[in-house]
Amino acid sequence: MEAPEKQGDTVNIRTQKLAGTVNWGTATVVGVFAGMLYGGSKEASASVSKDAEVMLKLGSTPDKREQYRLMRDAMEKRFIRVTRGSIVGGIRLGMFTAVFYGLQNLLAEQRGVHDVYNVVGSGSATAAAFGLILPGSFHWRARNAMLGSVLGAAICFPLGWLHLKLVEKANEGNLSATSEVSEAKGGISAAVERLEGNLNK
């Protein structure tokens, strides 16, 4: 009889996530795939003009072997360009997403609250960091960092506000559903207790 009491006394030590914080790993994976899709499609659309040049060369060469070689080379180059664009785009957007959401979750954990200022701070810091790593002179990098910081804060403020409003709306729906479930559970547990009391008599 003591064993169930000990099991009931165990406490879940796991810290709860603040409402509205995003899972860092999931966001990074989504960022990588979105960057791959964007980079690959950008390179695929840019290679249309190069394909037109190949078609002109094909029309001017009567030799079938030369035409086949030109087509094969064009397809290989296009495949390499699209693949390189996908990889580079995935790495860039994935790194940006990882840093942005990592800083956002760190700020929320340190401050103990998830609000629009976490989103603004992480967006500003991420844009400034990426402005610093762009190629160029120190003056050019400092200018990019300052511009990125201001632009990141300006873009992230309305997006963060919108995100938090959507989270609040979702939590209102969850709270009403949870209260309905708890009321239903209360009715069921009361019925079970009455049945147990009748059986014990």
From TrEMBL:
It comes from the Eukaryota. GO terms for cellular component: membrane; mitochondrion. Keywords: Membrane, Transmembrane, Transmembrane helix. The keyword Hydrolase does not apply. GO terms for biological process: mitochondrial respiratory chain complex I assembly. It is found in: Membrane. The chain crosses the membrane at residues 85-104, 116-134, 146-164. InterPro entries: TIMMDC1 (IPR055299). The keyword Transmembrane applies. Coiled coil: none annotated. Its main location: membrane. It holds the Pfam family Tim17. It is a multi-pass membrane protein. Belongs to the Tim17/Tim22/Tim23 family. This is Complex I assembly factor TIMMDC1, mitochondrial. It comes from Buddleja alternifolia.
